[in-house]
């Protein structure tokens, strides 16, 4: 927690700037954004405890905005679903290896000996 009233004011100003910047990245009618903007527009309360409570609420609102933006970015960056690739079953692979081995065996047996 900040030690002086000047520290509290500095942090509140910084958080207000962050809320302002984050507001450009999301819809203007987002409830989390509206709550954060309402907290930003409220003045800093007088007194030690009320000012710290306001600071914590403002920090929580900013954190909520960041979480919403990250959640939306993850959804937007999700790759398009690709067509499923066919993978052969193990018995198909065994059969193919057996056919190749049998072909090699027949070919080796048909080569004349010198």
* Largest sheet properties: none
Distance between the termini: 93 Å
DSSP, total strands: 0
Indicate the structural class: mainly alpha
Backbone CA Rg: 33 Å
Mean pLDDT: 85
User: Helix and strand succession?
Assistant: HHHH
The tally of helices reads 4
Low-confidence stretches: none
Shape: rod-shaped
Describe the structure.
By secondary structure, the chain is mainly alpha-helical. It is 71% helix and 0% strand. It contains four helices and no strands. α1 packs antiparallel against α2. The radius of gyration is 33 Å and the shape is rod-shaped. 9% of the residues are buried.
Briefly say what this structure is.
The protein has 114 residues and is mainly α.
Summary keywords:
single chain, 114 residues, mainly alpha
Strand-helix topology:
Layout: H1 5-23, H2 31-41, H3 48-77, H4 90-110
Helix pairs in contact: 1-2, 1-3, 2-3
